Amino acid sequence: MNIEDYDEQLKKAGEFHGEICGGIAIGTKLAMYGLELMKMELNQRHKNLIVFLEIDRCMADAVQAVTKCSMGKRSLKQMYYGKFAATFYNIDTEEAIRITDFDANKKNKSKETVEEMKKRFRETPPEKLFTTEKVKVKLKKSQMPGKPHTSTRCSICGERITDGRHLNRGGKPVCIPCAEGAYYEIIEENQ
Ligand SMILES: [Zn+2]
Ligand SMILES: [Zn+2]
Predict the structure, then answer these.
(1) What confidence score (pLDDT) does residue 32 get?
(2) Tens digit of pLDDT for each residue in 73-119?
(3) Are 46 and 109 in contact (CB under 8 A)?
(4) Were both Cys, which of 6, 33, 53, 175 would link to 126 (CB 3.0–4.6 Å)?
């Protein structure tokens, strides 16, 4: 992984995120390492790549900017595990590698400034920053990219639900908020 490429990707990730913070610095490195291990080129969209993100912090934006995977393309899956890790999955070959940020899991954090940390991320080879595992990914058909796999209507609120995200209640399709409660509460309905 050459340093000019890193600087180029770091700049792009910083623009996407709004700043180059420590998370963007390490996330850029992680994303580039992932592409390298999957033998995929930079600055391209890869139709056969799905990235599973385990974190929804700064690092996530770097992974999105560098890999060009996105939620809208269904090529970026947010798992909300709260862990500094991501898995790169090739849908064609089913090869998958989970990459973990070594630093995030260290017990004794090194005392360094953000600038020192960013410099270290830039200069250290990825093998020394991350641990990798070969994994087998279980992906349902309904999670694959492409047009919606199923479409139904909630038998309670009547709203459309795609890709099998509905539940069955007494043999009828019901959306998750109707079945389990939503993140919102209706205050006033538009007339
Ligand atoms: Zn940030
Ligand atoms: Zn509903």
Answers:
(1) 98
(2) 999 999 999 999 999 999 999 999 999 998 777 777 778 899 999 99
(3) no
(4) 33
Give the number of the ligand closest to the Cα of residue 20.
1
Ligand nearest to the CA of 156: 2
Q: Residues within 5 Å of ion ligand 1 by Cβ?
A: 21, 23, 58
- What contacts 105, CB < 8 A, 6 or more positions away? 84
Give the integer Cα–Cα distance in Å for 133 and 148.
31
Query: Measured in angstroms, how far is the CA atom of residue 169 from the centroid of ligand 2?
Result: 11
pLDDT-derived band at 149 (thresholds 50, 70, 90) equals confident
Whole-number Å distance, alpha carbon 173 to ligand 2 midpoint, is: 9
Q: What is the C-alpha separation between 7 and 119, in angstroms, rounded? A: 11
**Buried b vs exposed e over 180-191: b needs ≥16 C-beta within 10 Å?**
eeeeeeeeeeee
Q: Closest Cα to residue 168, out of 181, 159, 179?
A: 179
| Structural domains in the chain plus CATH codes | 3-141 (3.30.1330.130), 147-180 (3.30.60.20)
The reported pTM is 0.91
d(CA 101, CA 109): 13
Q: What is the pLDDT of residue 105?
A: 77
User: How far, in Å, is the centroid of ligand 1 from the Cα of 14?
Assistant: 8
What is the 154 CA–ligand 2 centroid distance (Å)? 5
